[in-house]
Amino acid sequence: MSSESTPSVLVTEPEFRRAPQVFESTDSLRCIPVKPDEAALSAAIVEHRARYVVVGSVKYESALYATLPRGGVIARFGVGHDGIDKRKATDAGLLCTNTPGVLDASVAEHTALLMLAVARRLHALTAEMTAGTWALGPAGTELRDKTLAVIGSGRIGQATARIASHGFGMRVIGCRRTAPTSNGPSGDWAFVTPDFEAAVREADFVSLHINAEPANIRYIDRHRLAMLPSRACLINTARGAVVDEQALYDALASGGLAGAGLDVFDREPYVPADPSRDLRTLSNVVLTPHVGSNTREANRGMATRALQNVRLAEAGQFEAMDLVNPEVIR
User: Fold this and answer.
1) Residue 2 is assigned to a structural domain of this protein
2) Cβ–Cβ < 8 Å for 53, 10
3) Annotated active-site residue in 70, 268, 296, 297
4) Which of 3, 196, 278, 317 is 20 to 30 A from 203, comparing alpha carbons?
């Protein structure tokens, strides 16, 4: 296939850098790295006459949907797709996809890392060692026999439950919107309930695995934070928008919550909505810069899956794609 007839796929630069070997080695598609901001991406679509783009978590609001031709693909490099306006994309006849399944282990392992880091005061101990201080300080806590509430029992929530149950010997409670088909223990769960308060009532750790759809924005607010035991630690590797960060700061600073491990934030790079409530100033918080899925294995898997969705679109096999707006083909 000549370079002129090879379909062009524009890949935003941060995502291209995460799996260059995949994007550079395909011979059926021509992958071109481009800047991720909407204006630059839209200009590149026109320049390269591209029908396909692979994007990260940047929010796209208008120009992308007006520029990409009908039948084009917006392939999300990852699972969360709140940065893509599905209504505008559907109205423009654009197919939107994500990469389910390939990053489950990566994010679940990072969730476990954050639980351990918070439980053993890793942030404070590292800061003390860096400052030249050798001191035991307050004792940490073990994960064994502790209770973990997993809010959102999809693929990543299930993977987290397996690690916690089988790896650490934790009691795991699941929380999801729909009631389970059985009230008894199943697999890695002590029980699963649609009742948030019941799920977190005895929790030592609460891990979030819900998406940022409108109903979940600020889902963890002051009211729900107050339902957590004061000994509990909140872990978020889902989406920053599902947590009211100012309310979380107040709970952590006042002793209403023991700690937090956060990989995602309402604004990324992280900027506190209120400068006087900066989560970075708290010693009982461990922060990482949205790297839950950033492993070599997951990066290769996401790149491969994103390009697979493009190839399926090229072949007209729309039903086989990982569509997040399936109504576009109805």
Assistant:
1) no
2) yes
3) 268
4) 278
- Which listed residue (121, 290, 305, 311) is catalytic? 290
pLDDT at 45 over 50: yes
Is there a catalytic annotation at residue 144?
A: no
Across the range 298-327, mean pLDDT stands at 98
Mean of the per-residue pLDDT values of the chain: 95
Structural domains in the chain (count):
2
Q: Decide if 87 is inside a domain.
A: yes
| CATH number, residue 16 | 3.40.50.720
From the list 81, 239, 305, 311, the catalytic residue is 239
The better pLDDT of the pair 182, 119 is held by 119
Confidence of residue 183 (pLDDT cuts 50, 70, 90): very low
Element (H, E) at 30: strand 30-34
258 and 279 share one domain: yes
268 labelled catalytic: yes
Give which of 57, 91, 53 is closest to 73, Cα–Cα: 53
* Per-residue buried b or exposed e for 106-125, using 16+ beta carbons within 10 Å of the residue's own CB: bbbbbbbbbbbbbbbbbbbb
For the chain, the helix, strand and coil percentages under 3-state DSSP, each to the nearest 5? 40, 15, 45
Bridge partners (DSSP) of residue 189 are: 186
Is residue 166 annotated as part of the catalytic site, yes or no?
A: no
Sign of CA dihedral 54, 58, 61, 62: negative
pLDDT in tens, 199-247: 999 999 999 999 999 999 999 999 999 999 999 999 999 999 999 999 9
Q: Is residue 148 domain-shared with residue 277, that is, in the same domain?
A: yes
Alpha helices in 120-235 (DSSP H): 122-130, 155-162, 168, 196-200, 222-225
Q: What is the pLDDT of residues 243-265, one digit of tens each?
A: 999 999 999 999 999 999 999 99
Q: How many whole angstroms separate alpha carbon 96 and alpha carbon 324? A: 6
